[in-house]
Amino acid sequence: MEKRLETQASITMFNFTSLPPLSLYIHVPWCIKKCPYCDFNSHKSPEALPEHAYVDALIHDLEQEVPYIWGRTVQSIFIGGGTPSLFSAEAYERLFSSIRALLPLSPHVEITLEANPGTFEAQRFADYRALGINRLSIGIQSFNDQSLTTLGRIHNRQQAIKAVETAHKVGFENFNLDLMFGLPHQTEKTAQHDIDTAISLSPSHISYYQLTMEPNTLFYQQPPKLPDEDNIIDWQLANQDRLAKAGYIQYEISAYAQDNKQCQHNINYWKFGDYIGIGAGAHGKISDASKQSITRRSKQKQPQKYLETAGSQTVIQTEEKISKKDIGFEFMLNALRLTDGFPTPLFYQHAGLPISHIDQALQQAEQQQLLTRDIHFIRPTEKGLRYLNTLIELFLP
Predict the structure, then answer these.
(1) How many CB atoms neighbour CB 124 within 10 A?
(2) CA-CA distance, 229 to 349, in Å (whole number)?
(3) What is the pLDDT of residue 12?
(4) What is the value of pTM for the model shown?
(5) pLDDT at 55 exceeding the cut of 90
(6) Do 362 and 257 share a structural domain?
(7) Are residues 87 and 195 in the same domain?
(8) Are residues 240 and 341 in the same domain?
(9) Domain boundary, last residue among 246, 268, 290
(10) Is the pLDDT of residue 10 over 90?
(11) pLDDT (average), residues 184-190
(12) What average pLDDT score do residues 235-253 get?
């Protein structure tokens, strides 16, 4: 029995001398329409959106999370979906009043709200800004009307441009535009036009990623015809060059930002920081110094089930502790997305183990010229970023 307990401890115990930064993720699960490529936990909005009841549920959910992170300061908040911009400013005012009462927030807290161009109203977004929401992530996807129709988006090119102009007008100096490439019917010319249009609108951040056929989506079941893969790669490289020349520096595999405008919330994910997750289907990861453990939790995915269970233990759909054998893969799955890599000591600080724990995989990655490392930094090479899945798989237990 004693030997078995020792073995169990070696699997689950870490050695945290400090805890990683903490973020808060809030999930709003409803959309006006489900897009055929989307595999996120999103659901078609009912005719009467249960806004008040859902905010109540979020508050109860957060109250239940507080004991796990008592006293820790929240560095960033991200409201994702779904389409969070379906909710009124009044709903967010009530939610943020409770958040500020329950959690200490950094004086420089970054608060991001995802928005769909089809839901933009100037007054509503001015009110969001007045509440302290200081960053938007606008789901453009394309500025081409044919592409938008194929993707099932509810907005058109003009509405997309108007949304960005409205963001500028009501005072958002920091906002992201989501763009996809490798779309059905896309050509080199239309792919370039998307990037050029985005740059001309002067966002502080651009997310640029390839359309993929995710399981449990309509596109996966009925795949559309996509451009040739070699052409897609050529367009990507050419448009990455355009972004760089316009001052958008790639800092993550699909993220480009102007100086000091990187998404702090996402950087915390990539650096294996901690985060609370509240809302239907939200995920969280919390390190515990007293128990020397890291726990992942997810909440009930179905909105109605979430509404019925928020504030009780039943709201937790899954809960598991990360083991020592998995920690190398879990950490590197995130950190190697960063183009500049990460400080070598960060592994010990955020994973609770010495870097020697993954030394064998690091040696293999070096031999294959997929990363470089020294006592100060570990970085994916250009080849490593190109073959990122191959690099990450080296760290599988």
Answers:
(1) 17
(2) 40
(3) 55
(4) 0.94
(5) yes
(6) no
(7) yes
(8) no
(9) 268
(10) no
(11) 95
(12) 97
Residue 312 in domain: no
User: Which residue from 163, 162, 159 is spatially nearest to 149, judged by alpha carbons?
Assistant: 159
Q: What is the mean pLDDT of residues 146-163?
A: 95
- 134 near 111, Cβ under 8 Å? yes
Q: Domain containing 373 — which CATH number?
A: 1.10.10
- Dump the DSSP string for 295-339: EEEEE-SSHHHHHHHTTSGGGEEEEEEPPHHHHHHHHHHHHTTBT
The range of the structural domain enclosing residue 379 comes to 325-397
Query: Would you say residue 9 has pLDDT above 60?
Result: no
Please name which of 10, 15, 3 lies closest in space to residue 325, comparing C-alpha atoms.
10
Residue with tokens 């020397």: 292
pLDDT band at 1 (very low <50, low <70, confident <90, very high): very low
Domain boundary among 268, 287, 311: 268
Does 252 reside within a domain? Answer: yes
pLDDT for 7? 40
Show the tokens assigned to 193. Answer: 């036009």
Does 281 reside within a domain? no
β-strand pairing of 249-252 with 255-257:
antiparallel
Is residue 335 in a domain?
Answer: yes
Q: Rounded distance, CA 70 to CA 104, Å?
A: 9
Distance from the Cα of residue 160 to its chain's centroid: 22
How many whole angstroms separate alpha carbon 17 and alpha carbon 52? 41
